[in-house]
C-alpha cells in the first residue's frame, strides 16, 4: 500500500528550472530591452534630423508696381446673379404633351415653338363651329332668293292695286312677307357673326395647344416630357405638370445683394462697383448700381440693391455667387505727396516686435526685409519702402520663418 502511494505522489523536482537556463533567459530579456531602447533612440534621432533638414513649403507672389491709387472701397457685400427676365412657360389649357422641341441650354427666339399638346378635341370643336357657320350662311342665300320673289310680288301688287283690280289687303300681305324675309336675313347674319365668334374661340383653343417662347433667351430647365399631362393650375397628386420650360434672358443678368441698412446711405444709383464671381475669383467685373429697392427687410435689417454689369459676358450665369465692392471717388493727389513704390498681397505682411516685415525669396532662401506699408488696395497693401516691383514675397507658409532659411516653393 505504501508503494502505490509513492507512485501517485507527483515529482516536484521535475518542475525545477535549471540555473544555467535561468541565466540565459535573463540575459535574453536584458538584450531585448537594450535593442528596443536603441531603436527608439534611432527613430527620435532620425525624426530630429529630418525636421532640421526638411525645408518648409511656402507660397510666393511678386510685388507689383503701385501705379495710381484707384477709387476707395466704401462697402463690401455678397449676393447672386439674377436675371431681370426669367419665365416659367406654362400651357393656358390642360392637355397631354405630344411634342417637345427644345432641350436645356439651347437658344430660342421669341415666338419659337417649344411644345405641342394634344389638339384632337379642340379641333373637332373648331370643325363643328365652322360647319354651323356654313349652314347659317346657306340659310341667308335661301332667304335672299325668297326676298327677291317677295319684292316682285310687292311691285306687282302695287300696280294691280293702283289699277283697282286688287285689294289693299293683298298688297299689305306682300309687303309684310318681304319685310319678314329682310328681318330673317338680318337675324341670320347675326347668327353667322356669332358662329364666327365661336370659330375664333375654337381656333384660340387650338392655338393654345402650341406653346411658344415669349421672348428670346436660353432654356435653363426642361419640365415636361412627351406623354405627360400639363395644366396651368396644379391638379395635385404629382401626375400633372404646371410648367413646360424655364427661359432666361441672359442679356438681363444683373446682381442682387442685400446691404445692411446701417450702411445703405453709402450706396447711390450709378455708383461704380467692382464685382468678383465666386467661380472666377481673379476676374474683376466693372459694374454700377442700377437701383436701390425702396424697402427694407425687417427680419434681416437689410435693403436690396440691384447692380448692372457694364459689359455682359457669356461666362456670367444666373444664380452664380458674387462679391461686390462699392467704390467711392478717387482720392485727390496732394502736392508733394510720396507715391508708393509697390503693392503686395496683405497676407505677405508680418509683425515682428511692432515692425512690419516681409520675407522675400532669393535662390530658394529667405531674406527678412523691413517695409513701410501704406493704405490697402482691395486685397493688396501699398509699400512705400523696403521693396521694389518684382520681388518675390512669401504669402503663405509656416508661422515661424527665419532669415537665411532654405525653403521649397509650393507647386
What does this entry look like structurally?
The protein folds into four domains: 57-70 and 334-409, conserved putative lor/sdh protein from methanococcus maripaludis s2 fold, CATH 2.40.420.20; 73-83 and 253-327, Efflux pump adaptor protein, beta barrel domain (Elongation Factor Tu (Ef-tu), domain 3, Beta Barrel); 87-119 and 209-248, RNA polymerase II/Efflux pump adaptor protein, barrel-sandwich hybrid domain (OB fold (Dihydrolipoamide Acetyltransferase, E2P)); 120-194. Helix content is 31%, strand content 33%. It has helices spanning 2-8, 19-53, 120-163, 168-207; strands at 57-62, 64-65, 73-83, 86-89, 95-100, 107-108, 113-117, 210-212, 217-222, 229-230, 240-241, 245-248, 253-260, 272-277, 284-297, 302-309, 321-327, 342-345, 350-352, 355-362, 365-370, 372-377, 380-385, 392-396, 408-409. The strands form six sheets. It has a six-stranded antiparallel β-barrel. It has a five-stranded mixed sheet with strand order 8-7-5-10-11, with no helix packed on it. A hairpin with a 2-residue loop joins strand 20 (355-362) and strand 21. The longest helix is centred in the middle third of the chain and has 44 residues, at 120-163. The relative contact order is 0.17.
Helix content: 25-40%
CATH architectural category of the largest domain: Beta Barrel
> Class by helix and strand content?
alpha+beta
Would you state the CATH class of the largest domain? Mainly Beta
Strand order of the largest sheet: 3-13-16-15-14-17
Number of helices: 4
Bin the strand percentage.
25-35%
How many separate structural domains?
4
The radius of gyration over CA amounts to 48 Å
Order of helices and strands: HHEEEEEEEHHEEEEEEEEEEEEEEEEEE
Shape: elongated
Instruction: Look at the structure and give the mean pLDDT.
Output: 83
Do you know the CATH topology of the largest domain? conserved putative lor/sdh protein from methanococcus maripaludis s2 fold
Low-pLDDT windows of residues: 1-7
Amino acid at each position: 500500500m505504501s508503494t502505490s502511494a509513492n507512485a501517485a505522489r507527483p515529482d516536484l523536482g521535475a518542475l525545477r528550472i535549471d540555473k544555467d537556463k535561468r541565466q540565459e533567459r535573463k540575459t535574453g530579456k536584458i538584450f531585448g530591452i537594450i535593442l528596443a531602447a536603441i531603436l527608439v533612440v534611432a527613430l527620435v534621432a532620425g525624426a530630429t534630423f529630418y525636421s532640421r533638414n526638411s525645408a518648409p513649403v511656402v507660397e510666393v507672389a511678386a510685388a507689383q508696381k503701385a501705379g495710381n491709387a484707384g477709387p476707395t472701397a466704401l462697402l463690401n457685400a455678397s449676393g447672386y446673379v439674377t436675371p431681370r427676365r426669367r419665365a416659367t412657360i406654362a400651357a393656358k389649357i390642360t392637355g397631354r404633351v405630344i411634342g417637345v422641341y427644345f432641350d436645356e441650354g439651347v437658344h430660342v427666339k421669341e415666338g419659337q415653338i417649344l411644345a405641342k399638346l394634344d389638339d384632337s378635341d379642340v379641333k373637332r370643336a373648331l370643325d363643328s363651329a365652322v360647319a354651323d357657320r356654313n349652314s347659317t350662311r346657306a340659310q341667308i342665300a335661301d332667304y335672299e332668293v325668297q326676298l327677291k320673289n317677295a319684292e316682285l310680288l310687292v311691285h306687282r301688287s302695287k300696280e294691280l292695286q293702283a289699277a283697282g283690280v286688287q285689294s289693299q289687303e293683298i298688297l299689305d300681305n306682300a309687303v309684310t312677307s318681304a319685310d319678314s324675309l329682310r328681318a330673317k336675313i338680318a337675324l341670320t347674319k347675326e347668327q353667322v357673326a356669332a358662329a364666327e365668334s365661336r370659330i375664333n374661340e375654337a381656333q384660340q383653343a387650338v392655338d393654345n395647344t402650341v406653346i411658344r417662347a415669349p421672348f428670346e433667351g436660353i432654356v435653363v430647365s426642361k419640365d415636361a416630357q412627351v406623354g405627360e399631362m400639363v395644366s396651368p393650375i396644379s391638379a395635385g397628386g404629382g401626375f400633372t405638370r404646371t410648367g413646360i420650360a424655364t427661359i432666361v434672358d441672359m442679356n438681363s443678368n444683373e446682381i442682387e445683394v442685400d446691404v445692411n441698412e446701417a450702411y445703405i446711405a453709402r450706396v447711390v444709383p450709378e455708383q461704380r462697383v467692382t464685382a468678383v464671381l465666386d467661380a472666377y475669383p481673379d476676374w474683376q467685373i466693372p459694374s454700377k448700381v442700377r437701383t436701390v429697392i425702396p424697402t427694407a427687410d425687417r427680419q434681416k435689417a437689410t435693403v436690396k440693391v440691384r447692380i448692372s454689369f457694364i459689359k455682359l459676358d457669356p461666362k456670367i450665369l444666373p444664380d452664380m455667387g458674387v462679391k461686390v465692392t462699392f467704390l467711392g471717388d478717387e482720392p485727390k493727389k496732394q502736392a508733394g505727396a510720396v507715391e508708393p513704390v509697390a503693392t503686395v498681397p496683405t497676407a505677405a505682411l508680418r509683425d515682428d516686435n511692432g515692425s512690419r516685415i516681409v520675407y522675400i525669396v532669393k535662390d530658394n532662401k529667405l531674406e527678412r526685409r523691413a517695409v513701410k506699408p501704406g493704405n490697402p488696395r482691395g486685397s493688396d497693401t501699398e509699400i512705400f519702402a523696403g521693396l521694389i516691383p518684382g520681388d518675390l514675397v512669401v504669402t503663405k507658409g509656416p508661422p515661424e520663418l527665419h532669415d537665411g532659411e532654405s525653403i521649397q516653393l509650393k507647386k
